[in-house]
User: Which sequence fits this backbone?
């Protein structure tokens, strides 16, 4: 059965710390991996990854995909309280276009 | 603001009732996706419509149904509601979402359903 597993489930850090969030997957027909940030309301798109080894970067956030080991990491450097959110990882199944979601990592950044 | 709108924002109803959730995709987007998010299950894909036609089905119960209209807005109908149906229901849209394309999904603000 296809699955996406995120770790850790929950993380509490101080402002300025760097965090690494993990997403591993077992999906028969991988097409892409997506990261979303969810605060109080709807998830907002962060990155889409399709190729191994190519880092995507946006400000203090970056992400990379390893298709051989079947995982992705999301890095946040110099964390701020505004980074507090649930970070969701989803993998797209190329057969039916469905997104298979992880349960998310809850990040709390304390001042 | 993603450009995706959902109504209503909150719904409180009793068991056994039927509700309709509505979603308007971003202007020009052809695909609409419905998700259910509950505390213990995470984000669950329900169903995907592309230009009025059902494209993919996920963990959608038989008591639930959806459709996408010619103007591309979509409705999710939930009937014979049970306590366990209480959740956040998100709609997302994407530009294409056809079989040969991969594109980003943009989420609406969600509808919070509480079944008492």
Assistant:
């Amino acid at each position: 059965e296809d699955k996406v597993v995120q770790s850790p489930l929950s993380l509490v850090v101080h402002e300025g710390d760097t965090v690494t969030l993990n997403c591993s997957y077992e999906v028969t027909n991988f097409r892409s991996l997506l990261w979303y940030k969810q605060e109080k309301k709807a998830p907002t798109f962060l990155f889409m990854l399709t190729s191994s080894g190519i880092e995507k970067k946006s400000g203090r956030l970056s992400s990379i995909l390893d298709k051989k080991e079947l995982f992705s990491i999301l890095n946040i450097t110099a964390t701020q309280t505004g980074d507090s959110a649930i970070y969701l990882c989803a993998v797209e199944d190329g057969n039916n276009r469905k997104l298979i979601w992880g349960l998310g990592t809850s990040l709390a950044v304390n001042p | 603001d993603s450009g995706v709108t959902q109504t209503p924002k909150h719904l409180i109803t009793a068991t056994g009732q039927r509700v309709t959730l509505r979603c308007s995709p971003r202007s020009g987007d052809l695909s609409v996706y419905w998700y259910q998010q509950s505390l213990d299950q995470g984000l669950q894909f329900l169903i995907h419509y592309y230009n009025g036609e059902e494209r993919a089905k996920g963990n959608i119960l038989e008591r639930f149904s959806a459709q996408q209209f010619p103007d591309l807005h979509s409705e999710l109908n939930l009937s014979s509601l049970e306590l366990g149906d209480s959740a956040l229901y998100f709609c997302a849209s994407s530009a294409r979402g056809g079989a040969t394309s991969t594109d980003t999904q943009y989420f609406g603000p969600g509808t919070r359903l509480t079944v008492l």
Remarks:
- DSSP finds no helices and eleven strands in chain A.
